[in-house]
């Protein structure tokens, strides 16, 4: 029999990871991506728990270890820039011994490099219309084609999901995150600084692999802003004059090449497949950046979906994929909602008290038990699935 032809929409993390596994199982894979080239940049991301098992099976763990951010400390600073407390990065982020932190762009490049010889990548195009019953696809630029399966790996604002699944499934958590590359004017070396004022948080960090730094702004709002000009305007309105290095960072962000701005949102679907079409990664179950688990869900989802398709007819494979992923997804969606409340202080007193707690924590007799209690929800969410052997 001829190999099944699969179209994957999206070439960030979930798409190329799924392409890797599908090619291994003998599928003929095409990946279409709206961007004209692979998207570099982005913020640091975690690979935890079950996702570590996936990258080990892909033979990529050692290579990713060589690209680790190697972040050493996180410091909370006040308005004048004085460091209130320094905390080891792994402790604060709740990483287990085997967990990895890398830059999103580095992982994306590795997955692309691992698949480009065996997968048909088509950049600068995307789907225009999709028939989930026949697998017929018309593109914005290329000629129409028919595929045995179509998988949406096109992120939070998935075109595939909108066309096939419909409904308002994006849950806005009423916060916005913005990030960009900026000059490392504070000469940070594998160090992250956090400045918090009521309702707003600024992070600045530089990894062991970057000469520049990343500036991240997080704030609460229920307003919607479209286009870079409006997005920069709301950043300035929200953060200008807030103290510390904020104004200088806003000036740098305004001219950054990789400016990113989006709502902090989650995706909650009542099904992951319709006829010949399924979803993976953020398109199906975005847990929000606050969870720190979006990349891990994408890697585990790609592994599970491809594995089930290698063993069963699509309808059965899609159903089993959903059954296996549901509890894992639910745990990580909750983690994202819970974490967001801890990332932004509601008052100056709360911000100060949080920093002081971290300062005294290493001196407490039960510090290990306290740290374990704080970080246990992260570890539980990261391991909330038993990976089948395919």
From TrEMBL:
GO MF, one example: monooxygenase activity
Coiled-coil region list: none
Key words, A-Z: Monooxygenase, Oxidoreductase
Record has Oxidoreductase as a keyword: yes
UniProt xrefs under Pfam families: FAD_binding_3
Segments traversing the membrane: none
InterPro entries, per the entry: FAD-bd, FAD/NAD-bd_sf, FAD_aromatic-hydroxylase
Leader sequence segment: none
Domain FAD-binding span(s) in chain numbering: 5-329
Protein name: FAD-dependent monooxygenase
